[in-house]
Specification:
two-stranded parallel ribbon; 6 helices; 2 strands; flat
């Protein structure tokens, strides 16, 4: 009993130490993808302090999401964007990106939520040049 308790404690300490080493390496590893690398607050602010350049004209947007995106959000954004803006969407209720992509995973409310003239299947939208 005592031996297993000691071994369990040592294993837990080893796991914590390994996690700490991995965390420290991730902070300074230049090969780590930028999206996963921790960023200093000052650097983070610099990224988002630069305003985006305004589009030169109307855009065509594809909205992929679930019901929390809101069924009216694409139309509201189109109103804000102005004349010539176009959009299509594929929405599902509480749907993961994987379910949107893989045909064998059922999407709750798919038929009802996409019964509109702006529906476009995700794979078709991504494969197009428009």
């Amino acid at each position: 009993m005592r031996r297993s308790l000691i071994l369990s404690g040592l294993a837990a300490m080893g796991a914590v130490a390994a996690a700490g080493i991995a965390w420290r390496r991730s902070r300074r590893d230049p090969t780590m993808p930028v999206a996963r690398r921790p960023v200093a607050w000052e650097e983070f602010r610099k990224i988002y302090d630069r305003p985006l350049t305004q589009p030169g004209g109307p855009l065509r947007i594809f909205h992929l999401g679930h019901s929390l995106v809101g069924h009216d959000m694409p139309a509201m954004l189109a109103q804000l964007a102005g004349p010539g803006h176009r959009y299509e969407s594929q929405i599902g209720r509480g749907t993961t990106l994987r379910a949107h992509w893989e045909d064998h995973i059922p999407i709750e409310g798919y038929a009802e939520d996409n019964a509109h003239d702006r529906f476009r299947p995700a794979k078709e939208a991504l494969a197009s040049d428009d």
